Amino acid sequence: MTAGVYKLTEIPEHSGKEVEPPDSSERSSEKSVSLELTSMVTRDSLSVLGLTYIVKRWEGSWWKGCCMRPRMVKSVLTNVSMHVSSGQLTALLGNSGSGKTSLLNVIANRASGQIVGGVYLNNTLMTEKVFQHEAGYVMQDDRLIANLTVRETLTFTASLKFAKAATEVITERVNRVIGDIGLRHVADNKVGGLLDRGISGGERRRVSIAAQLLQDPKLLLLDEPTTGLDSCTANDLVANLAELAKKRGKIIMMTIHQPRSEIFKLVDQVAILSQGELVYGGPSVQMVPYFTDLGYPCPKYSNPLDDYIDLASIDRRDNAVEEESTQRVGVLKAAFVHSTIFRQTLSNIHQDTRILQTIETFQQNAAGFIQDPPGFYFTFQALVWRMTVNLKRDRSALAVRLFQLGLFALFMWLFIFRLSNNQESIQDRIGLFFQSGQVSAYVGLVNGVSIFPPIRDLYDREARDGLYTFLVFILAYFVQILPFHFVSSAVFSSIVYWAIGLYPDAKRFGIYYSVVMMMHYIGEMLGVIFMGIFKSTSVATSVTGLVLAISGLIASGFLVSLQNMLQIFQDFSWANVFKYSSEIFMANEFHQLEFSCDEGSGMFNCAIIHLHYFRTIIPPGVPCLIQVGDDYLNIAFPDAVDNLSVNFAVMAGFVGALFITTLVVYKIRGVRNLH
Amino acid sequence: MEEIAYNRHELKTLTVNALHYEVEERGLEWWQALSSFQMPWTKKDLPRLPKRKVLNDVSFEVKSGEMLAVLGSSGSGKTSLIDVIACNNDGGEVTGDVYINGLKRTPAMIKECAACVRQDDRLLPHLTVKETLTFVAQLKLPKEWSRQNVLSRVDSVIAELGLRHVTDSKVGGEEVRGISGGERRRVSIGIQLLLDPSILFLDEPTSGLDSFTAHHLMETLAKLSKNDRIVMLSIHQPRSDIFALFDLIMLLSQGHVVYNGKAADMVAYFTSLGHPCPELTNPCDFYVDLTTVDMKTIEREQESSDRVKTLVSTFSSKDEATPKKTTVKFKVEDDTRGQVNEAFDGSDGDLEVTTTNTRPGMWDQFSVLLRRATKNSLEDYGFLAVQAVEALAMSVMIGLVFFDLKLDQLSARDRFGLLYIIGALYPYMVILDVIGKYYKERFTIYFEMKDGLYSAWPYFWAKVIGEIPEHLFFILLYAVPVYFLSGMQLDPLIFLQSFGIIFLVVYNSRCIGQFAGALMPTYQLAVITAQSIFTLFLLSSGFIFNLENLFVGTQWISYVSHLKWGYQALCVLEFTNLNFTCPANLPESVCLNNGEEALMAYSLDGNPVWHSASIISGEILFFLFLYFISIKFISQKPHQT
């Protein structure tokens, strides 16, 4: 059945709910979607009825507070009605600020604001669930993982979408989409990033589109698919979309910025928006006659789309022109509402949405749908696989992850070279442990900052599409980085421990290594938490850096004595991970370590003594204050040796607590809307 | 039409004869190779890439009052053509001649009578439209001009470009809200119009603008060309109504000319070749597609490249066939070229003299740059506020951690910790801010220096002197709260000296940041370089490791570490004349009785404060010198990523 049949059907003015829709039997059969394409024989329609979208926001700078700023209420879309059927390619046109993208966002249920009116797919109200099942939305920016090939990218998305399907089925589906969208010649090329060039911009855009086509959606929305492409590539892309709509019977709707005349010939429906209202919305073949009837013919060698967009925009260069153009646009809007084309649209909408299907029926019908949500373990595995492959192919990121921490160890080694056992070496050891805690946490943060933000943005996009949740995402990230932390901490600890020469004992080395690794891990976790709170990566980095520096300062007991600090810092010192890490470091090294007593170290005794909290009385006449490390521990870190295992457990507790905090933060943060 | 008749342009003719241009494919830059782990020795295995012909036998002629549009799909050589004519090409081999009024063009001539508008707008975001133009005008216009004249010239440019309604609006940029993209593009054009050039080159002036704005911009350009200028532009996807504004069109395909002539004749020409333009179609779109080689499939590539070849040969044979008066003219000129060029060379010297003489000198450049930099950073109060909050927050946090230090034995060590962290924490953060800020400006600097607006020397001084007040302000915010919260010695002289030392130490870190920023091509590399230097200085500062235990091979680093000298000076200032109490249950011999003993215990005694201060000052001069050398000799060309 085609759209033409509907045009001929007369709709009675009163609502006819008792009348069965002519094609209800056909429509119920189309729900049994299998991997075989059935949509070629079905007819779907998207109806937008009387859509009005209002946003409210505060104007002016944030520091003026909520009371000083005027609150602006703006109607982004006003009473927009459209009707599109499968097989049609629709172009949404208009100048910047005309509401094109907002219309797509409202259809996709991704708009925040007040929405009046309804969007229906066939006769079902478009909810987020329905959209996730039946539609795809290609946003303006391509967010792709740089080091995966085109095929891997698509296979990954497909395997998340059809977890229960067999591998051959997924391969077949991916191959078909690659063929449909014209990516066969680059199927095994890397997508590419900024430094290493991969596929071209037009091909990247196609990969983004292909990812949305995998589930064979009835409706495909695209936001500015041709932006940034040269005219030839843009033209090919639109031609490809038109072909896709015809061949696979899809409803495709795109916004477009600088439409070329060739594009005009490819689209079936055109909607021109001006300040959120339709100036024209209907078949493209009727557009030129429609405007000609209104007294605006299109010159012979001219692109009608350009011409009529200009006609529908308000020229703000000076007041006279602005007034004149505002008036003109007003007349055009009014004329369209009273046109036969608009009336036809309304009757089509009426026809298709007369009997609304409830969500429950929709879900029953969709039960046989292939798109079962994949299991937790499966998603987790797929995400870890993707992150690992991406990192493995990015050699510089990989090297930074593995060796940056070790580089700092080399710096320290450069200065100390080999620890001695004299009295001054106590200070060296303290400095070394202070650095061990700070540096490993800080490098963890830096590592996270360099790879996490693009993955986070991708999560926002894919979580919107319903592919996975924050829980799997966070868990996969934290598990995936673990092996790298093992290695980089091992490099660092080995250099510090064996080259610089700490207490030579394998078990003690193990303890040192574990603490370094936990601090390294905690640093990255903190970074991830703050990158969830702040959108800007640099703000997140500075805040995390400051938190690490100050808490290290307060609690490590190396730079300032806890007893002299403000009461509030003392009361909360238990909540500071550096307190535990430094106690373990100190006990681990100083317990039973013997110090030598050479000439001239007498003066240094005095330097040591100020570390006391005078719990012990030192017998007079002793040449060296610290003969065994325990002497020092007794003064500065009493009970550190006894508490070793407790401290260790507390640190592990910190790792767990931070993990839970991350989950809470990402739960509250939700999924951000990115363009 | 204009209020001031400056450089009333005589009529010009730009003639290009048989221009060829070849470039060598360049590999990755050293830092790109480094970050993708391409080792130097793997490089020689790569075969030397053959030279690529970018332009092939291009000839045309434009006269004042005409607008020439160069069309073509990406990779057709549009931008290269404009770059070669405007002497902006980055290497490559050029053959063929370019004449202005029959004289072979030299870079000096181009500088004298032409201006080039680049594809992306590099404007300082916090200045208004009027300020942006005024500052450049003061750098560009002859220095004999009175302030009144300069301002009226700026006003007339603003009027000519239809920017009156946004004269006092901020320009804005990626992060800052300002005027619209089309208006920003017009400001970029306005900068080039200040000298009223008779030839204006524009590379893709409409890219990134919406179709409505693009149209208005092109109308402006058409108006400019009607005003006896040559306007030559490359364009990628012109709308049909833009097409109507062009006088001349050159259609390029892979460096070959497919069509060159009156815009109005283009459709007729292609129709005569059997390619009529369908109705309701933009002829530009249609013919650009027609002359593009389609690489999608092998058959289509074959077919389209055959078509393009036929079109190219048809056009060049037609070009040959039509009697060319220009060719004849050159024939005549060829005979007299020696004389002509000689005559020109003779006048060349005068020309140079007049240009350098009338342009503002070093001192004027410096004062304009200083005023502009101050204005731009003061207007950026968001960034200033963030930095101020950062300094204050750090200061208060440290002050609270070390709140009200006593004079017992334990506090003696706390003082060392305090002085260490004062000298280490803020300078570390400052490095990141400095490098970030420098990379925001770098684009503007590079292109303005390339345009010869000013040289490195005045820029350097404007930058150094312009930043001192803001630096002083942040140091006040940083040093005062921590000093009084932690209860350091309340002697005005000691406070002033400590303040001076902190000022110097932080300033030194800024210089390291600036040096790294100017030295390295990307932000990340600059940060890594600066942080490495900083870490080396930090570890050898004498707090983390005892100075006497440092490995002999690397001990020298501590002698050049400004953090070590700053730390030492602060310690000497704070500990001198400080007496510590010794608990009754302890013999005095094991106590630190006074500050001098404490300094000795940390191996920090022996160097008076002035000693440290002068070493840090010397190091500041050293890094400033390196910074200057980097601006002067290292290309500040901005890179992506």
TrEMBL record, chain A:
GO molecular function: ABC-type transporter activity; ATP binding; ATP hydrolysis activity
GO CC term, one of those recorded: apical plasma membrane
Pfam families: ABC2_membrane, ABC2_membrane_7, ABC_tran
InterPro entries attached to this UniProt entry: AAA+_ATPase, ABC2_TM, ABC_transporter-like_ATP-bd, ABC_transporter-like_CS, ABCG_dom, ABCG_transporters, P-loop_NTPase
Annotated region described as Disordered, given as residue ranges: 1-34
Compartments it resides in: Membrane
Keywords tagged on the record: ATP-binding, Membrane, Nucleotide-binding, Transmembrane, Transmembrane helix, Transport
Composition bias type Basic and acidic residues, residue spans: 10-30
PROSITE patterns xrefs: ABC_TRANSPORTER_1 (PS00211), ABC_TRANSPORTER_2 (PS50893)
TM spans (from-to): 398-419, 439-455, 467-500, 512-534, 546-566, 646-666
Membrane-related topology note: Multi-pass membrane protein
Location of the ABC transporter domain: 49-300
Biological process per Gene Ontology, one example term: cholesterol efflux
Keyword Transmembrane helix: yes
Annotated SMART domains: AAA
Family stated for the protein in its record: Belongs to the ABC transporter superfamily. ABCG family. Eye pigment precursor importer (TC 3.A.1.204) subfamily.
Protein name in the entry: ABC transporter domain-containing protein
Organism, scientific name: Capitella teleta
Automatic annotation (TrEMBL), chain B:
Localisation: Membrane
Matches recorded under PROSITE patterns: ABC_TRANSPORTER_1, ABC_TRANSPORTER_2
CDD domains linked: ABCG_White (cd03234)
Keywords, comma-separated and alphabetical: ATP-binding, Membrane, Nucleotide-binding, Transmembrane, Transmembrane helix, Transport
Stretches that traverse the bilayer: 381-403, 418-439, 460-480, 492-513, 525-545, 609-629
Family: Belongs to the ABC transporter superfamily. ABCG family. Eye pigment precursor importer (TC 3.A.1.204) subfamily.
Name of the protein described by the UniProt record: ABC transporter domain-containing protein
UniProt lineage: Eukaryota, Metazoa, Spiralia, Lophotrochozoa, Annelida
